[in-house]
Amino acid sequence: MFLEQFPGEGRQHGWIEVICGSMFSGKTEELLRRIKRAEFANQKVLLVKPKIDNRYSDNNVVSHQGSALASKLIENSSEIISLWSNEKIVAIDEAQFFDSGIVSVCNQLAAKGVRVIIAGLDMDYQGTPFGPIPDLLAIAEYVTKVHAICLSCGNLAQFSHRTASETGQVLVGAVEKYQPLCRSCYNKISH
Question: What are the catalytic residues?
Fold first, then answer.
C-alpha cells in the first residue's frame, strides 16, 4: 500500500540546487557545508571548479574564509560527464564561468538520479545576469540566495562592485578587486 501511494519512496531521484549571490556572500562556504554533510553520511561526491578560478588554490575549492576541499579542475562543462563515476552528488563551484552546456549537463545528471549542487554569482559587476546562472536558476528545484554585508552601510549586499579598472565581464579576484554593496550604495557609486 505504502509503495503504491508513494511510488518514488525507496528510489533515488535527482535534483538541482543552486546557491547564488554576490561576492563574499558565502556561496562557496555553503557549497562546502553541504558537501561535508553528505560525506559524513558516506555519500560519494564529485566536486569540480573551472580552471580559470585559481585565486586560492589550483587543486581545491576554497572559500574566502579558508574552508577547502579537493576538486577536479575543468575547462568546459562536458568534462563533468566524463569525470562522473556514479557519485551520488556532483557539486560545481563558480558555475558562472562555465559555458551554456552546463545546463544540459546538470539536467542529464539529475535525470540519472544525481543531486547536483551549484554555486555561482548571479550577477556580474555591472549588475546584469551572469553566464549560465539564470538558466540554472530556472531549472533548479531548490534555490538559495545568499547575501554579503554592504561595506559602505552595513545592510544586506547583493551587488559585487568592482574596484579594479578592468572592464571585461570576467575578472577573477577577491577583496583586492571587488566589494559587496547593497542596491542603494551600488547605485550611488555606479551613477
Answer: 94
- Cα distance between residue 136 and residue 165, in whole Å: 30
Query: Shortest CA distance to 95 belongs to which of 54, 146, 56, 53?
Result: 53
Read off the C-alpha cell for 183: 542596491
pLDDT tens for the chain, 191 residues long, are 334 443 444 456 899 999 999 989 999 999 999 999 999 999 999 999 988 776 656 676 665 565 666 779 999 999 999 999 999 999 999 999 999 999 999 999 999 999 999 999 999 988 999 999 999 999 999 999 999 999 999 999 999 888 766 666 555 555 567 889 999 999 998 75
Domain 11-147 is found in CATH 3.40.50.300: yes
